[in-house]
Structures are given as structure tokens and as C-alpha cells.
Write a structure and sequence with these properties.
By secondary structure, the protein is an alpha/beta fold. About 40% of the residues lie in helices and about 20% in strands.
Length: about 325
């Protein structure tokens, strides 16, 4: 299959649309991308395609994908001359996708063979337009060792998560295990009907925000305890480099959503989430000030009650782990 550019016209509609489209943003992922693609193509019981957007890689990521696309028509490669970031790449892939369901797969991760079928069945059984499963985290150098991203979610558990519970499960400080790091599948029709896409200005928390938009549009999120997604922990991962500027963007984007809950549980959850953003922002500001040896910034953040609460929560978390 030929590679496309980001300015190429849409392909003619086909009648053999797959059940699910994996969308993948790829940047300098040559060491891992073939394994990621192989895991997606190995899905059992469902028809799949993979739409890969190479975000101006400087290694041979694109050529590796192109070689596979030439052999397997289920793989589509779109090359971008200039990088626009993972959210922009995913949005472009979603526009080209033909599946009834959209699945997010990062170029250095992998999925279990039964995952697509399991999540589609879960979403259809619950009537949810969004479904996700637990994530097995593993070090890049030790793939045989793994642990669940959401440790308090039993393997046989199934949750139906609404807006309030989702916010409570995504507090940056003092909340329960974070569901915003899960890699969901979405109903493509639901995304199209409500005009939902990734926010391209956000560098951290983009999966959390798109799921939140879906919940605000009227669906719940079905969550399975089965860990069908394998998250490779590598030093270049963006999610491991949280900065104060990222939190400022996150707060601005969250405010722009216009979330005005009326149910008491959702009102409390919204307030708690905003409070957790403020605590994390104060703590990261303190940490960055110490790194720069900026005494003024250290004092400014250290005197904030939000920073005290953040330090206390982090200390309590360490004690509990011990």
C-alpha cells in the first residue's frame, strides 16, 4: 500500500471497512515500531487496520512502516514533512481511519491478541462509546517484568465510569489510581457526531482530555481489569517529563472545556480535580525553582498552602508504599 502525505486526498470509500482502526503517532520509534505493528496485526476475531502517522522522524521509522505496508494492505502510512506532535498526528490518523472503533496504540507499546475483541464486546455490552482496559507496564530493558498501571483494579473487574468518578480517578494529588493514562477505544461514529478530537495544544494528559470530552458529551466509560495493553517504559517518554508549563496548559485547556456540572457528586469532583492541579503546579514550581537555584521562585511556591498539601500527600504516599 502506498504511503500518503498529510496533504493527500481522502481515499475512496471502501465496503470492507474493518471492525477497528489502530491509530499510531510515530516519531523516531524505529527500535520498537515493528513489534507494535505486529501485535496490532495479530488481533484475533476482529478485522483491523493500522493508520500510522510518521511525525517527521529523523530515523528509519517511516521506511520500516512502508516496508510492512507494501506487504500488508491493512497498514497505512502517512508521512508528515514537519512534526506537529502526537495529538495532531492522532487526529490526522482518525480522519483517515475506516473502522467502527478507534484504538490508540503508541509506537513503542504493544497489545495482546484478544484485546480488540474483548474491548469491543465490553463496549457493545455496556452501551458505552469509550472502553479501556488495565495497562501492563514494563521496563524497556526487562520486558519479562511487568506490573498493572491501576493496581486496585482486579483482573476480573468491570467498571462503568461516569463523569464524577472519572475526575476523582484522575486527580494529580491525593486521588485514586489514574484512569487518564489508559489507552481507550472510541466509537468512531460517536467522535464524529460530537466533533471530538485530540487537543493539539496539549503535550501531557491528551488521553485524559479526550475521554473527558466524551463523558461530557453523554457517554460513560467501560473499564476492564484485564491488562491487554503493554506500556513500554523508555527514557524518551513524554509522560515522564512533567513541567510547570504543561500544567499551565492543562489548566487553561480544562477551563476552556466549559465544564459546569450540576449533580453534587460531579461538582465536588470538579472542585477536587482543580485543587489537585493547583497542588501539583505549586509542587512542580518548587521543584523547578530548586533545580534552577532560583531562591525567589522557591520561596514563592514554598509559601503556598497548595504546595504544603502536595508535599504532605507525596510523603504519605511514600509511607504507604513502604
Amino acid at each position: 500500500m502506498r504511503a500518503l502525505t498529510d496533504t493527500a486526498p481522502m481515499a475512496p470509500a471502501r465496503t470492507d471497512a474493518p471492525d477497528l482502526s489502530f491509530v499510531m503517532a510515530a516519531y523516531n520509534a524505529a527500535p520498537w515500531i515493528e513489534a507494535a505493528l505486529a501485535s496490532a496485526l495479530d488481533q484475533r476475531g476482529v478485522g483491523v487496520e493500522i493508520v500510522v502517522v510518521d511525525d517527521a522522524s529523523t530515523d528509519d521509522t517511516a521506511s520500516r512502516v512502508a516496508a510492512l505496508a507494501a506487504r500488508d494492505p491493512r497498514v497505512v502510512l502517512i508521512r508528515r514533512a514537519r512534526g506537529g506532535g502526537p495529538s495532531a498526528a492522532r487526529n490526522l490518523a482518525i480522519e483517515r481511519a475506516r473502522g467502527a472503533w478507534i484504538a490508540i496504540l503508541d509506537a513503542d507499546d504493544a497489545v495482546a491478541p484478544e484485546r480488540a475483541r474483548h474491548l469491543i464486546a465490553l463496549a457493545e455490552r455496556t452501551g458505552c462509546a469509550v472502553a479501556a482496559d488495565n495497562v501492563a507496564c514494563f521496563p524497556d530493558a526487562e520486558p519479562e517484568r511487568s506490573w498493572p498501571l491501576v493496581p486496585d483494579l482486579a483482573e476480573d473487574a468491570e467498571l462503568r465510569v461516569g463523569l464524577a468518578e472519572y475526575l476523582n480517578r484522575n486527580r494529580m494529588m491525593g486521588g485514586r489510581s489514574n484512569l487518564g493514562f489508559l489507552k481507550p477505544i472510541f466509537s468512531r461514529a460517536f467522535l464524529a457526531r460530537h466533533g471530538i478530537r485530540y487537543d493539539e495544544s496539549v503535550r501531557i494528559g491528551e488521553d485524559f482530555l479526550i475521554c473527558l470530552r466524551c463523558l461530557m458529551a453523554g457517554t460513560d466509560m467501560a473499564v476492564s481489569g484485564r491488562a491487554g495493553y503493554r506500556y513500554r517504559m523508555v527514557s524518551t517518554s513524554l509522560s515522564r517529563k512533567l513541567k510547570a508549563a504543561d500544567l499551565d496548559t492543562m489548566r487553561t485547556t480544562y477551563d476552556a472545556l466549559g465544564l459546569t456540572p450540576s449533580e453534587p457528586a460531579a461538582v465536588r469532583a470538579d472542585a477536587a480535580y482543580r485543587g489537585s492541579l493547583a497542588e501539583m503546579r505549586a509542587y512542580i514550581g518548587l521543584r523547578e525553582g530548586m533545580s534552577r537555584r532560583d531562591v525567589g521562585a522557591v520561596l514563592r511556591h514554598a509559601l503556598q498552602p497548595a504546595c504544603w498539601r502536595a508535599v504532605a500527600r507525596l510523603a504519605l504516599r511514600k509511607l504507604r508504599r513502604r
